[in-house]
């Protein structure tokens, strides 16, 4: 008896086929799988050769699945999904954390140290880390975990959010800035004075405050200086370029020295929170909760070094 069709097909070819189908692109599939585009093309070619049928129609501008490609995807997608679930279930019984871990996170020295120490503790982990902060429609696309700073209410996506650490915050300004501007006493005053804001990591305006009962209040501020670095925001505030919203621990020394002054208003700024986001799955690969737990332990052990400076 000859070999069955399944015996002549590599699972990696099917993985590449599924990824191309779902992304409508060989290039995006290659980026997602961490493989050269030539490998993806070869996998599809070998799969088409073994099945003796064309799975994609290709033009210079786009690709689209053929009827056979549509049929193959619809019939095999549930099977591969169940196989993946079964394999991930088995990994829960393993004491070793292994596999590729794809992380998107801010370029923070403290986070870098935590990631490196995790890899040192688990040498079977293969890390792929991206520190770009350009917003995407779906930041989790292509990543196991996305780590980011937030203030206020989270956007309601179909992701799991785990809190890593949080810091109380203050609005601060330099004495020279206060000499040139009226002191803000109400959060609405911030719409009329120069403020330093972030333009990517925390989506810029508005700033988020909370009242005595914990209700969140957003306030649009007059942004004259936009940055994507806590250190740059503090340096700008020290230079008198505007009022800044900073974690207390990131500017404690400057507050004690009097080079920055805390602005007391009727509402307190909402805490700055570092979250780890991951896709909701029934069976989660062990590397993901282990990595998140490691970050939480590191944040607890090195609390004063973690705010974004």
Architecture overview:
- The chain has helices at residues 11-23, 26-33, 37-51, 67-91, 109-121, 175-180, 230-238, 252-257, 287-301, and strands spanning 56-58, 63-65, 99-104, 125-130, 145-151, 159-167, 169-173, 194-198, 207-210, 216-219, 222-227, 243-247, 261-262, 268-269, 272-279.
- It is an alpha/beta fold and 309 residues long.
- It folds into three domains: 6-91, Arc Repressor Mutant, subunit A (Orthogonal Bundle), CATH 1.10.10; 99-166 and 273-305, Periplasmic binding protein-like II (D-Maltodextrin-Binding Protein, domain 2); 169-270, D-Maltodextrin-Binding Protein, domain 2 (3-Layer(aba) Sandwich), CATH 3.40.190.
- The strands form four sheets. A five-stranded mixed sheet has the order 4-3-5-15-6, covered by helices on one side. A five-stranded mixed sheet has the order 11-8-12-7-13.
- The longest helix has 25 residues, at 67-91.
- The protein starts with 10 loop residues before the first helix and ends in an 8-residue tail after the last helix.
- The mean pLDDT is 83.
């Amino acid at each position: 008896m000859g070999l069955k069709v399944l015996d002549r097909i590599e699972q990696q070819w099917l993985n590449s086929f599924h990824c191309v189908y779902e992304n409508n692109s060989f290039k995006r599939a290659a980026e997602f799988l961490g493989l050269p585009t030539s490998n993806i093309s070869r996998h599809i070619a070998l799969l088409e050769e073994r099945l003796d049928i064309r799975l994609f129609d290709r033009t210079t501008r786009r690709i689209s699945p053929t009827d056979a490609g549509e049929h193959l995807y619809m019939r095999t997608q549930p099977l591969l999904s169940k196989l993946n679930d079964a394999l991930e279930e088995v990994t829960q019984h393993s004491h070793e954390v292994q596999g590729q871990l794809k992380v998107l996170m801010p370029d923070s020295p403290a986070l870098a140290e935590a990631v490196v120490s995790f890899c040192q503790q688990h040498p079977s982990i293969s890390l792929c880390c991206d520190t770009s902060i350009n917003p995407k429609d779906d930041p989790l696309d292509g990543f196991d975990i996305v780590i980011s700073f937030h203030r206020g209410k989270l956007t309601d996506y179909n992701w799991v959010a785990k809190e890593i650490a949080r810091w109380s915050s203050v609005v601060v300004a330099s004495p020279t800035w206060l000499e040139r501007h009226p002191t803000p006493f109400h959060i609405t005053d911030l719409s009329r004075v120069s403020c330093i804001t972030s333009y990517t990591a925390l989506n810029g305006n508005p700033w988020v405050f909370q009242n005595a009962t914990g209700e969140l209040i957003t306030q649009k501020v007059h942004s004259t200086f936009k940055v994507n670095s806590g250190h740059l925001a503090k340096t700008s505030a020290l230079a008198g370029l505007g009022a800044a919203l900073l974690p207390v621990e990131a500017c404690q020394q400057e507050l004690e020295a009097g080079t920055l002054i805390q602005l007391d208003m009727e509402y307190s700024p909402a805490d700055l929170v570092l979250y780890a986001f991951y896709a909701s799955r029934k069976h989660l690969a062990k590397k993901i909760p282990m990595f998140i737990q490691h970050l939480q332990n590191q944040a607890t052990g090195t609390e004063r070094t973690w705010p974004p400076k």
